[in-house]
Amino acid sequence: MGTPNVSIRKHIRRLPGEATEPTSTLVLTSHTSHFVDVRILAESREDGSREPLPNDGNESMSRLDWAFAGISKTTKSEHDNGPSHTVWSHWIDSQTSDPNTDEGDMYDQGDRDTLECGQNVDAETGEVKKYEELWHDVGVEQVGDEEEHVSVVLQAENVASETRAMVVRVGNHVQGMLKAGDKVTVERWQYKSGTWECTAKIGTGSGACSTTFQPDKLKEGGSVSACGMEWDIIELYRWK
Asked: pLDDT by residue (tens digit) across 208-230?
């Protein structure tokens, strides 16, 4: 267990290619290492600026590069200055109904940057290639009149309808993912200027992101009803 964090991806590089960043990628990781990782394809305007992220609740599936949620485990290196090794176990995955794991070596770059190195299957070629991803941890802010930072994890499953869903809140950021059969919905929320704002949504389903806005009404180990499902409150954690 560790301090909850919010990470954005600066670039991805499939060796020996060049480093690029074709997406808006945000990962929220909780105290208990539950995570939601959402990667939305960026679209550029003629002037080089980027189009806003989709957040109207329409399908917009062509903009979803990849999304997955689950739990991770990090093992520290036995050697000074050596990389740690992280394994991400996918409980939900937008690309498959049979989620697996991925893993990488994590090299501290300073200035809150971490270089992830590993190998996986290139979706375009089907070949196994080495890759690098550069991650940056952004600051986690307190929300409104909350006296501490807050981390929340909600999880729901309905076996009969083949539905799984997870929501993670870390401070002023929330991400949720729901998969019902082969239909995927992802949401992003951020607390800005005194209010929660939906900054991205793809898919027509409904998650329970707003349930995390009032943590005083939640109890770790309990459950809450939202969006037609019963959600387990996996985590409610506070820190200074």
From this structure: 999 999 999 999 999 999 999 99
